[in-house]
Structure formats: C-alpha cells, structure tokens
Amino acid sequence: MSTLRHRYFACTLLVVACGTAFAESPAPASLRDHERFATRAIAASTTPRALPVAEPGAVRLPREITVEGEAMGFDAALEASGTAAWIVLRDGRVVDERYYGGRDANTVFPVFSVTKSMVGALAAMARAEGTLGDIGTPIPELLPEPVAADRHCARIAWRDLLDMKSGARFSEVYDDADSDVARLYLADDLGAEAARTGCEARPGRRFRYASIDTQWLGDALATRLGRPLDVLLQERIWQPMGATHDATWSTDANGRIKAFCCLNARAPDLARFGQWMLGRGDAGGPLAAWVDGLLDRARRGEPYADQWWLLHDPKSGPDATALLAQGILGQFAFVHPHARLVIVRIGEREGEIPWRTLFGAIASANPPP
Fold first, then answer.
1. Residue 6 burial by Cβ neighbours in a 10 Å radius (0-12, 13-18, 19+)
2. Residue 121 belongs to some domain of the structure
3. Which of the four pLDDT bands, split at 50, 70 and 90, describes residue 68?
C-alpha cells in the first residue's frame, strides 16, 4: 500500500470508509469520454469570476511524498500518479496550479461522479425553496413505472436517493463489464436501463453507493421542477459561480442526461465550483444552512450525504471537517471550510497517492491565520 510522508507535517484528517472500490473501468473510462457520447451545452457565466494568483508561500505544500516505497518530489509524484490537472485555492486565490501530459487550463475533462455532488447541490436549492416538500415522503410518482411497482422501491423518498439509501439492486463494480454501473454508463437508452433496476431492501436502512440513486434523483428532480437538468445546472450553479467557459453534459442516444456522471469541464471551472461551495453559494449564502448541515453530519460520523463524501478527524477537533466530490480515475473537488481551501485533482487514473490523506494533510498544515 502507498504511504504518504511529508517532511514538515503529518496527515490528520481521517476518512470514514467509503464502501466503494474505485477500480479501473471496463468501458474503459478515459479522459476522452466527453468525445464518446452526445452532449448538451452549458453556457459560461455572463459574470465570470476571476481566480487571482496568491502571493508565493500562501499555502504550504509537501516537498516530498513516498509512493510505493520510493521518495519523490511533490511534482514528480503527482505526475507519476497519473495526474492531469492540479489546482489549489485559498480564499479564492490560486496558490498552486499544474498540468501534465500536454494539458493546460483550456483542456476539457470529464469529471465523472464529481457530477453527483452538483446534482446534490441542485437538490439542496430546490429543498430550500420548498419545492421538494417533505424529503421523507415517498415519491413513487417520480420514479420509472416498473421501479415504482416494486414493493420496496415504492417507499423511496428524496432523502433515500440523496444519501444513497434506496435499497436498489445495483452492482457498482467497475472492473466488471456486465455490472449494472457499466450498463448504465454505456446505455443508448438510459431511461430503459434506469427502469429495469429493482430494490432488494427497504429504503433508508443503510448506505450503499449506487449510481442508479443519482440517476433516479436527477430524473425526479427535473420532473418535479419542470426543467431539464442541464438548464438547472446552468442557471443555478454554472452562471452564479462565475464559470469562464462553457461545459457540456453527456447524454444517451436519446438526449437524456447522465445525471449520475459525465459533466465535462475545465479544471479552473471545477475549482470555481469548489469555491462556490466554500462560499455557501455566495450572494448572501443561500446554501449556508445546507453546507453547515453537511459538516455537522460529518462530525457525527456519517460517510456520505446529499451526494457528497463527508470527511472528519475527531482527534483534531470540530473544524477538521471537509466535503469531497469524487469520480472514477481520481477526479476530486475537496472543500475544507475551516482552512478556506479548495483542491482540485483530475487524473488519468486514481494513481498510487492516497489522495484523501494528502488533502487532509495539506489542510492540517495550513490553518487559518
């Protein structure tokens, strides 16, 4: 197993077991998948947000990392682990930005399941507006008809989909070409594929990472709000956060949005999304209560909520909490409110570095002044 060793700070942010193994995809997933599927465009913001460069030394980064028993300089370790893009923000300023393999700030990347966290944010806004109603009330009328007919699935509520507790009979196995997630990813008819899944357990009982939950959530959200997901994302996140470039969202052959994955964007705009989360949605903090609620749930030891991974180190106090959006191949958007840090990593593969440990170590070494 890889180890992480820094010359001047140690890791402190612990990670609750995530319950899902991110192996190589049988598709196989790649950083060119935005060219593989049809897409819908998401327009850049009419009020783009600048990302000014911070003064040198604004954040302390490791000088050296030990990967598979070999000590490497930080930059060499990032490259050797398949990193394509790396950005660190503090207080909305770029303190570190690196690209590898001929990429740059204009390279478009698929961010895979990082997209789930954006869908979670859209749901949070709808909930704050009162559009979703009681999130504990079953919503069979918003699920595919065959799914709603299942005795367990008929009890699924918004809360179950948000927290991945639907009880779906779904195999999230990335090294099996016949798994449910592989079929969902490659489906020409996403609606039919999403409708074939049933439930093996009563909803709400246990967390089990399943991409079908996000697909059902995204479809239900679009139906309830009467707007396509790509339009909602453009209006409620991409525009307000100040994206400087267009993004795209991959679809099936019928134009149905792959809600569980597949936003395609540039790394700096993914960093802007992280900063937007750090600012609780900005403009008066419309998402303040939601973000603070997620951090409280992290402190209580919950591993996952509202389509976000929750990180907390109880030994380091109540402020050692963070939110993490994560996708296959090691796509990450790490948001640490107390340290006022956002870290984005895009990878060709997950690589040998224990990324969550690294992110936590950087946050620990950079407490607010």
1. buried
2. yes
3. confident
Asked whether the whole model's pTM tops 0.85, one would answer yes
Burial of 300 (0-12, 13-18, 19+ CB in 10 A): exposed
Give the residue carrying structure tokens 């009563």.
202
Q: Cα–Cα distance between 48 and 175 in angstroms, integer? A: 39
Average pLDDT score over the chain = 91
Task: Provide the pLDDT for residue 282.
Answer: 81
Q: Does some domain include residue 45?
A: yes
Q: What CATH number has the domain bearing residue 178? A: 3.40.710.10
Domain count, the chain: 1
Q: Where are the beta strands (DSSP E) in the chain?
A: 38-42, 64-67, 70-73, 83-90, 93-99, 108-110, 247-251, 263-266, 304-305, 308-312, 321-327, 331-336, 341-347
Query: For the CA atoms of the chain, what is the radius of gyration?
Result: 19
Give the H/E segment covering residue 162.
helix 158-162
**Which structure tokens are listed for 279?**
């600012």
Which residues are CB-contacts of 101 (< 8 A; sequence separation ≥ 6)? Answer: 84, 348
Tell me, what's the pLDDT at 37? 95
d(CA 358, CA 12): 9
Are β-strands 321-327 and 308-312 bridged in parallel, bridged antiparallel, or unpaired?
Answer: antiparallel
User: Is the pLDDT score of 162 beyond 50?
Assistant: yes
- Cα gap 98→100, rounded to integer Å: 7
Report yes or no: 337 and 367 within 8 Å, Cβ to Cβ.
no
Q: What pLDDT score was predicted for residue 284?
A: 72
N-term to C-term CA, the chain: 35
How large is the average pLDDT for residues 88-103? Answer: 98
Q: Residue 329 belongs to what domain range?
A: 33-365
Does residue 22 surpass a pLDDT of 60?
A: no
Flag whether 280 is in a domain.
Answer: yes
Neighbours of 345 (CB within 10 A): 27
Torsion angles phi and psi, residue 47, rounded to 5: -130, 75
Residue 26, pLDDT score: 44
